[in-house]
Amino acid sequence: MKKKNIYFISDMHFGLPNHEKSLIREKLLVKLLDEIKLQASIIYFVGDIFDFWWEYKYVVPRAYVRFLGKIAEMVDSGTEIHFFTGNHDVWMKDYLHIELGVTIHTKELITEIYGKKFFIAHGDGLGAGDKAYKLLKKIFQNKFLQWCYSRLHPNFAFSIAKIWSHSRRKKEKVYKFRGIDKEIMIQFSKEMIKTKYFDYFIFGHRHFPLMIQIGESSKHVNIGDWLVNYTFAIFNDEGFKLMTYKNGHQEEFETDLNKLQNINIF
Question: I need a surface site. Which of 10, 11, 66, 203 has the fewest CB within 10 A?
């Protein structure tokens, strides 16, 4: 059977909120990957795969072996897999590329698939506004500060990161959809097509599963998340679909803007 399907998955945040609940979601994703492995030509994981990921020279987080093992198996069988760094796993370096054979992207990717032009990015920091976060992102990406942080013992460094991440989640128990005219990434897509055409803009980050038309024929897609919605997208020569695996089987997901006002994280 020829592999022809392209998949997009985002914002699994493995490790959140604890090992037990994260493992349930990890096993569910591995089940989906088992189902699609014979059809998947390429899979794009569009950022925040892990709620925290840090690589020392000889140390990486002790977790996620089912997911990582499945990725290695799929790469070995001929599936091309891409990992985008998000704002939670921005410190991804070359370990996963060397061990698993995945391609790591630290910025947006412009590519063509089946004759269609794609702009793919996690989405954090794009567009106008949100200056406080953009400053924080620069701090996270500063090589000297990363070197300083890596001087800490892994037990201490990972504990700090988990405390920080969990404290942010307590403040963000609900993701609020701001409306099409106020969502920064939607406005970014609209500005982009004024000067350069894309058939599809693919983003993670906001956790809302959303596919809307912008301009005459372009589509803006938020993949959603693997925390609440369990959504993913599939593209082949027949078209593009936003899907959900929330009930343990693949179903098409229909965007309903009226249901995007508030999404509880847990």
Answer: 66
